[in-house]
Write a structure and sequence with these properties.
The complex is a heterodimer of chains A (255) and B (155). Chain A has 255 residues and is an alpha+beta fold. Chain A contains 5 helices and 8 strands. Chain B has one domain. The chains are: A alpha+beta (255), B mainly beta (155).
């Protein structure tokens, strides 16, 4: 009985190796992508204060990591009883995305992961009219236009899928952390292009990208065989083996 | 892979839910009026003083602005004129009146998008008569929304 079990184990090791040789590498295409954020134009329908157009590009470094960069133009204008404010400018982000989906599942077409980016915002802000009121009475003044540079970090969990060949769609939520608005503590921007309200240390939102995706290279990715499945098979084969009489017959059947 | 597409489309809804509320108008709950905080002190000892009566006011071309009219006070707060680089106050302490001229520079300060801007000041100098006031000194030159004491008034 002990000898028989030993034969089964040896068979299993052979089997495991055979499976690994046939399935432990997959060929995955690496892509470069260029896309447009459609949430900007959509948001313009919701709020007329903000115009925001963003484009992003990314390039797969390997099956899990992609380098990414983006440019966004934003123009914000608000007018109410207390003040008029306007800001506009370009923001640039650069960083990396990590794909949690394994290469043998994603095949370079799907992504669900998280990105980390550093952002720079070059913007101009002004408050052409601001009203104040206290016991001395009411009055008006203004803040002249000034240029500033802001810095922020961006964490973006999101998903992306190939809609059809060469076109991908995807959304990502973002959490932006303000490092500096660059305008001093008194004149933080009501809206910092590329970031959001400059008075808030953290902003959240979502972006929805439609991208063109072009494969530029294919790589072979090693997929670690699932040890647990092998153990299950081991038990299964052992049981089968004990029933049929020879381990080799089980091995043959599997093949 | 259909599952992934479903995830994508379903996620659009919470995304919009997250974004749209940020566009709604929020009320202002913050303090927006910076005031000049002054502490009354006993001349010589520097101990806290309590005035039997205190009136603070100013004359303008057309009217008189009355800021303070209280009894038994040890400190008071008055706003500076946001339209000028100096404010003149008449301070009547225990029935005796002095005039204090406060000079300052002004700049706008964004309180919040909901509350808008306010004018904060930096004290640059002051002059006072000495009928009852012995000394009026600047303790903290920034008149903003921090609520810190700005002047020490010894009498």
């Amino acid at each position: 009985m002990a000898r028989r079990t030993c034969i089964f184990f040896i068979s299993l090791f052979l089997l495991a190796e055979t499976v690994a040789v046939s399935q432990d590498t997959v060929t995955v295409p690496l892509h470069v992508r260029a896309g447009f954020d459609i949430s900007g134009p959509v948001m313009k329908l919701v709020t007329k204060d903000l115009i925001s157009y963003g484009v992003a590009a990314s390039a797969d470094i390997n099956s899990s990591i992609a380098a990414t960069a983006g440019v966004r133009y934003s123009s914000y204008r608000s007018s109410d009883v207390l003040y008029d404010f306007m800001s506009r400018g370009f923001s640039f982000t650069a960083g990396a995305d990590y794909n949690f989906i394994k290469a043998n599942v994603s095949h370079g077409r799907y992504s669900a992961g998280i990105g980390l980016r550093y952002g720079l915002s070059f913007y101009r802000e002004e408050a052409p009219m601001l009203r104040y009121t206290n016991e001395w009475g009411a009055g008006e003044t203004s803040v002249p236009a000034e240029s500033h540079t802001g810095h922020f970090m961006e964490i973006t969990p999101g998903v992306r899928a190939e809609l059809f060949r060469g076109v991908t769609i995807g959304w990502n939520l973002y959490m932006r952390l303000l490092l500096s608005a660059g305008a001093g503590k008194d004149l933080k921007p009501v809206w910092m292009p590329g970031y959001g309200p400059g008075t808030s240390g953290m902003t959240t939102g979502a972006e929805y990208y439609v991208s063109i995706s072009i494969p530029y290279r294919k790589i072979k990715v090693y997929i670690k065989p699932k040890v647990r499945e092998t153990e299950e098979e081991e038990t299964e084969v052992t049981n089968t083996g004990s029933g049929t009489g020879t381990g080799l017959s089980g091995f043959t059947n599997r093949l | 892979m259909k599952r992934l597409s479903v995830i994508i489309y379903i996620a659009v809804i919470p995304s919009l839910v997250m974004v749209i509320p940020s566009c709604s108008v929020q009320p202002c709950y913050e303090e927006t009026d910076p005031v000049l905080h002054t502490v009354l002190l006993v001349s010589g000892t520097g101990e806290a003083a309590k005035a039997d009566s205190l009136r603070v006011y100013t004359y303008r071309e057309t009217d008189t602005l009355r800021f303070i009219n209280l009894k038994g006070v040890s400190s008071f707060s008055v706003p500076l004129d946001p339209a000028s680089d100096e404010s003149e106050f008449l301070i009547t302490l225990n029935g005796i009146t002095d005039t204090a001229l406060i000079r300052y520079s002004r700049k706008p300060h964004l309180v919040s998008p909901e509350c808008g801007y306010t004018i904060i000041s930096e004290l640059t100098g002051l002059k006072t008569t000495h009928n009852i006031i012995d000394t009026l000194i600047i303790e903290n030159k920034f008149v903003n929304l921090d609520g810190q004491k700005n002047l020490h008034l010894f009498y």
